[in-house]
Amino acid sequence: MGTKPSGPATEPDWMSDFTYLQPDFANMNADHPLLEPDDVLIDLHVTTRHALLEEIARHMARRHCLPRDRIAESLAAREQLGSTGLGYCVAIPHARMAEAKRPVAVFARPQIPLAFDAPDSKPVSDFLALIVPSDSPQQHLELLSSIATHFGERSFRESLRSAADAASVARCFAPIRVHD
Question: Around Cβ 157, how many Cβ atoms within 10 Å?
Fold first, then answer.
């Protein structure tokens, strides 16, 4: 006659094959940097606002699987309401889109600064484009506030202007975090 194992019941071996289906609670509600080096475009060959927004849309579509036409339309529609130029040669083109599942950003620096109807009438050399989910208006406002605060600091703008490569630009924005 066989004997029954004593002690606590153990998990059958076949269940270990399904551990990848378990939620990763350690990474839920994690935060991550707003900007990654792969989302930095330096020395863009654009000469108009429209061309800049198209390049940003193309990049966001490729990197973040969002519809390029909708990104370009959304950013252009927001600019129609009023320029997102802040002065000090910086701008934050931004929009909300239902297709976005989390905030995404692209930094763009054209070879030649662009006229962007900024309040100080200076051309803009540094752009941070932002797309936020439509159902996250509070997060949209909080990100805009944080970005504008950073752009308002002379030391931040100087660090950003001296950043010559994508990794250096991304490091400038590292304090701005996105919460999933």
Answer: 18
User: DSSP 3-state helix, strand, coil percentages of the chain (rounded to 5)?
Assistant: 45, 20, 35
Alpha-carbon distance 122 to 135, whole Å?
A: 34
Alpha helices in 1-94 (DSSP H): 49-64, 68-81
Threshold 0.85, pTM exceeds: no
Per-residue pLDDT of 122-140, as tens digits, reads 999 999 999 999 999 999 9
User: CB of 166 within 8 A of CB of 37?
Assistant: yes
Of 74, 83, 82, 36, nearest in space to 54 by CA: 74
Longest Cα pair distance anywhere in the chain, in angstroms? 93
Of 45, 50, 59, 94, which is the active-site residue? 94
Active site residue 94: yes
